[in-house]
Amino acid sequence: MANSNLPRRIIKETQRLLSEPAPGISASPSEDNMRYFNVMILGPTQSPYEGGVFKLELFLPEEYPMAAPKVRFLTKIYHPNIDKLGRICLDILKDKWSPALQIRTVLLSIQALLSAPNPDDPLSDNIAKHWKTNEAEAVETAKEWTRLYASGA
Amino acid sequence: MDSDEDMHDANGSESLEDDFYSEDMGMESDDGDADYDFGNEETDDDAEDINLHRQQNYTILSESDIHQRQEDDISRLSAVLSISRVAACILLRYYKWSVSTVHEEWFANEEHVRQVVGLLENPIDIPNVHELTCGICFETYPRNMISAAACGHPFCGACWRGYIGTSINDGPGCLVLRCPDPSCGAAIGQDMINKLATEEDKEKYARYLLRSYIEDNRKTKWCPAPGCEFAVDFEFGSGSNDVCCKCSYSFCWHCTEETHRPVDCGTVAKWILKNSAESENMNWILANSKPCPKCKRPIEKNQGCMHMTCTPPCKFEFCWLCLGTWSEHGERTGGFYACNRYEVAKQEGLYDESERRREMAKNSLERYTHYYERWATNQSSRQKALADLHSMQTEKLEKLSEKQSQPESQLKFIIEAWSQIVECRRVLKWTYAYGYYLPEHEHAKRQFFEYLQGEAESGLERLHQCAEKELQIYLEADSPMKEFNDFRTKLAGLTSVTRNYFENLVRALETGLKDVDSSNSQAACSQSSSSKSAYGKGSKGGKNKAARSGGPSRNSDDDWSCDRCTFFNPGSASTCQMCEHHQ
């Protein structure tokens, strides 16, 4: 990878992510590819994901910031807007992307999505159905998965 | 279409089961019964009637016309609302170029409109400092290299160019572009595009803007002909749906298919779907094949004995008649080449259901093929005629003018004849779709329809033949021929006769053949020949008599058939009422 001609914007964003990390979020670039980030998000308090540590990968495509970053959960998670491959249904990652958004804002939005699942705009139909018909049970499953897969191993 | 109701009322006792019989282009006056008797004095009125129909209720717009209209609308709105032209353009685009909607919304709640459209009432200036940081690339620039929309969010030139370019390349969505700041929403108008985008993107944007004026507006459409750049502005509520573009392509405003008078849009859609649909293949398979009893693949038996062997890998051997295993066939079942089991079972009625189904499918397929062939033949014949018309206009007319030493202005009748042929082929083509959907059990209508179609068709054949073959003689002549004047009279006569035949046909079909409502007309029509045999060149008198079902009093022995155009004249007329040829 030609890390040498990395746009100033990416360098600046990276520096700021490292020097002033957002609460509950860490993102650090891979050593051999400065466009690839290893991300960790702590499960927000008072959500079924509380206590969990979720790994994600984030990639800045060539067109960034004109195009949105590509983000995916690596940790298994039971969430109506995240499918089993870890893909995330979030408007700002698609048509609502704006070049004035940043890695930080994207990760904060993902964190907020964990606090407020949106089963009306689902990516995973089964989980969304579960959420709508029996939210208490679905929340239990999410907690169970958090214990099983995201307990900070 | 609202005129449907009127048609139903006007048709009175007629029960019209299918929608498509009541035309949605009902523009006939309902007062008088349309007259299929070509030879009386009402002909003139009818002709006027038809001219009225042809009054244009649409405008063809060139690109510059569209541009002009767009500019005019913007100017007018900008003056009325006292806003900038850019803002007016943004508003108009948002409200689909409807000036009245903008007025309505704006004066009802200006604040709300401003908010949804993204027009700030009080623009915010870029902070008055030396250096500013671009919100996208985070670089610092001197103030003069930073631009912002009315909201004042600062971005540098390169980032603007990238932002606008990305959006324009994503399609017409660029017309609703907002400030890159996600919390903002200030609209980005064409002024910003022109100031900040690349030349190529500016052009693309202008194209999208022009297109949206046509595509978002209910009253306008692009001409659907390939490569045509004209648009049509259509006036609703009056007259026909037929639009003839300046590119010479004619189409139906309503469904944008090629013009299809006298058939309505619904029938056309059904017919086109049918022509393309797999369903016809299915019918064929059903009618002409049986499924292999083992692997169920359809098998067509094209020859040979009843002993069938399915193709590998199945290789099942069976009897075509009873579909049983071949190994069970032998002396006991009536020998290898006749299947008693089948005969017995058939007598017991065991095979009836599927056999009948197959039989029906076969019949329906043949029926469809009959109409399709004729539809398609007229279609290709029309294409050929169109090409002939073109070559006539571009080269042959000049040649003919030389050979026959006639000024080209005197040869207009040839162009008229060819234009008539092209139009008639189109009408004739669609009458076959009409015929296909005309129910079998409506015998009287069917016969009347086939009679009119047959008359029109034979008229057209005579005209086409004359324009194609006879003209050739004069084109190849070495010197001017004195017969040319007779030819002129003949061709012009045939053109006008054929036009009348087709106008009658169109009128009859557009009114759902409403004149057929008594047993009396059925009897009269029963003499007429069907469309299939109507090409006949002889026995014209007989056929024409059948047409006169409306007025028995005119059926006198003195009536005569014109030698030239075959029009059937009353005995009182000494010249043909159709082509003015002497008896």
From TrEMBL, chain A:
Keyword tRNA-binding included in the entry's annotation: no
Residue ranges annotated for the UBC core domain, each copy included: 5-151
Lineage: superkingdom: Eukaryota
Signal peptide from the UniProt entry: none
Enzyme class: transferase
Catalytic residues in the record: C89
Alphabetically ordered keywords of this record: ATP-binding, Nucleotide-binding, Transferase, Ubl conjugation pathway
GO molecular function: ATP binding; ubiquitin conjugating enzyme activity
Pfam families: UQ_con
Enzyme Commission number(s) from the entry: 2.3.2.23
Family: Belongs to the ubiquitin-conjugating enzyme family.
Function: Catalyzes the synthesis of non-canonical poly-ubiquitin chains that are linked through 'Lys-63'. This type of poly-ubiquitination does not lead to protein degradation by the proteasome. Mediates transcriptional activation of target genes. Required for postreplication repair of UV-damaged DNA and for adapting root developmental programs to suboptimal availability of iron.
Subunit-level organization: Interacts with yeast and human Mms2, with the RING domain of RGLG2 and with UEV1A, UEV1B, UEV1C and UEV1D.
UniProt protein name: E2 ubiquitin-conjugating enzyme
TrEMBL record, chain B:
Cofactor: Zn(2+)
Residues annotated as domain RING-type: 130-343, 134-178
Residue stretches of biased makeup (Acidic residues): 15-45
Gene Ontology terms: biological process: protein ubiquitination
UniProt KW Repeat keyword: yes
Location of region: Disordered: 1-45, 519-563
Class of the enzyme per the UniProt entry, highest EC level: transferase
Name of the protein described by the UniProt record: RBR-type E3 ubiquitin transferase
Organism this protein belongs to: Cocos nucifera (Coconut palm)
